[in-house]
Structure to design on (628 residues):
């Protein structure tokens, strides 16, 4: 099965306690694609400038990712400058140069129209809604967002949430979106606004899925169904070199695994949460996309087993 | 098997977003004892003043807890005043009246000398060491501590750490004790200073155990043994009324379960981590010790099963 992802393909300049890198390949769609490519076919929609080289594109195509939806336009690519020197768990944005991303108008190539799954990475909800509307036949749609859209573009975002099978956000975003500091109550409020399932990423503590009665086929209308949570833990890591892209890599592992399975069952969803955690844990081991380019399915599955053992009771 | 616990028996005045209570029964030894009492026999050593009533003591004795080690002296009991209005995850201490606790010199009644397990709650490490030295025959010793002792009494604390089978602390304390912001590296450094096993409590995200080659009988000298982590998740809670005592209730469930088992195996230790999480989750549902007084083993085991399912992959 194939996943279509729309989002940023960018360059990042990053400083962490482990060092700094300048203008390395980044962007939500890039991390998502590389991560999901270990599980299923991936197609990308994005926009880049003249500074995006054949070598940059080859990072994606070498992993079998279809890049025909990456539009090349005059100007410079989106460039994000950030620091993790103060807090390794939260990026401090030093500079955001939107460049060609400022006028991004996603176009879906004809060859992408038969995509089975759709991932709306963190971009303007107006664009997310536009892409969603152009892909009426997909089996499942997942999406991400961030504080800026929640705070300043809520009405547009709410139109997107209604159509999501799963929303993937972090603790702070969930609390802000729901206006509630209790994570379980926040989850219940968000599920009431549209998404069938909510995935909340807790960074180094793993991630939780909150299921509703609409999460799975046949679940609708079950008497007495209440929100059921599921927690995928995270492995403690010896070293976090660069947290950039961890959340998008989580999403790629999560959705990539789902897309590789014949049916979306609770068991598949739970395993997908663990694969998300595995891919996020790899992403932070090196700067930029470096680690996500060089993995093998064998080492991914070996770490999945370690993660399963990590909180398994006999 | 019986657990001897030494620590504070106190009164707390607490304000949280759910309300406020004045002079309710509290203290680390109190929460620990109530929690452990659902699993095994418990004996307490502490000191209280004239304001500690027969009704207060009956809260413990009704649960079968042996209170002969609670010394009654002239003056007032330890009284802590705290607020969770700013942050439900971290207590803000408004006032600490040590009162009779200031001159606490733990005395071990003869009837306690055959105790099988020893829990050193968060008190001056000099007192922890003194009690430890008077109980040379116990099978297992666990201990707690806090930032104040780590920062200002490190040399005394280090003497206690050397003799611990397990140290139970939270994320911030672990990072401070090790001088390392990475939790896994911090755990490895702490294990190198003495404790055979380290349990780090992550609050609403659960808790991790870090095992060393000395954690279990027969584990010593295994070639290639490295620190192995295990994560017990936490259930997302609808409502946290009062976080006071959650960590001590975790310790009581954890150590109480271990004391109820014939042997300390990795499987027992892992189940103990889950029981710790279960007891911590009950503690916060009502103010003070209220919830910890009224539980049944049946509801404890039912929640244990829910927690097991909560991150279980088939």
């Amino acid at each position: 099965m194939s996943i279509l992802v729309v989002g940023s393909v960018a360059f990042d300049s990053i400083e962490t306690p482990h060092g700094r890198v300048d203008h390395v390949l980044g962007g939500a769609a890039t991390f998502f694609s590389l991560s999901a490519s270990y599980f299923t076919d991936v197609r990308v929609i994005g926009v880049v400038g003249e500074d995006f080289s054949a070598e940059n594109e080859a990072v994606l195509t070498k992993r079998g990712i279809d890049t025909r939806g990456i539009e090349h336009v005059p100007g410079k690519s989106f460039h994000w400058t950030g620091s993790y020197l103060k807090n390794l768990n939260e990026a401090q944005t030093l500079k955001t140069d939107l460049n060609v991303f400022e006028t991004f108008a996603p176009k879906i190539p004809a060859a992408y129209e038969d995509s089975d799954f759709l991932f709306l990475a963190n971009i303007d909800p107006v664009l997310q809604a536009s892409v969603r509307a152009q892909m009426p036949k997909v089996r499942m749609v997942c999406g991400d967002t961030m504080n800026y859209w929640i705070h300043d573009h809520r009405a547009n975002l709410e139109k997107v949430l209604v159509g999501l099978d799963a929303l993937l956000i972090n603790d702070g975003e969930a609390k802000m979106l729901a206006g509630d500091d209790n994570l379980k109550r926040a989850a219940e409020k968000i599920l009431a606004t549209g998404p069938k399932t909510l995935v909340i990423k807790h960074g180094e503590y793993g991630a939780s899925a909150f299921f509703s009665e609409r999460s799975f086929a046949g679940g609708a209308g079950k008497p007495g169904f209440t929100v059921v949570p599921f927690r995928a833990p995270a492995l403690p890591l010896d070293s976090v070199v660069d947290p950039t892209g961890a959340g998008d890599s989580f999403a790629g592992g999560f959705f990539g695994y789902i897309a590789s399975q014949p049916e979306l069952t609770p068991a598949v969803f739970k395993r997908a949460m663990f694969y998300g955690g595995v891919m996020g844990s790899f992403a932070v081991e090196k700067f930029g996309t470096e680690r996500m380019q060089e993995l093998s399915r064998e080492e991914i599955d070996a770490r999945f087993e370690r993660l399963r053992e990590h909180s398994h009771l006999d």
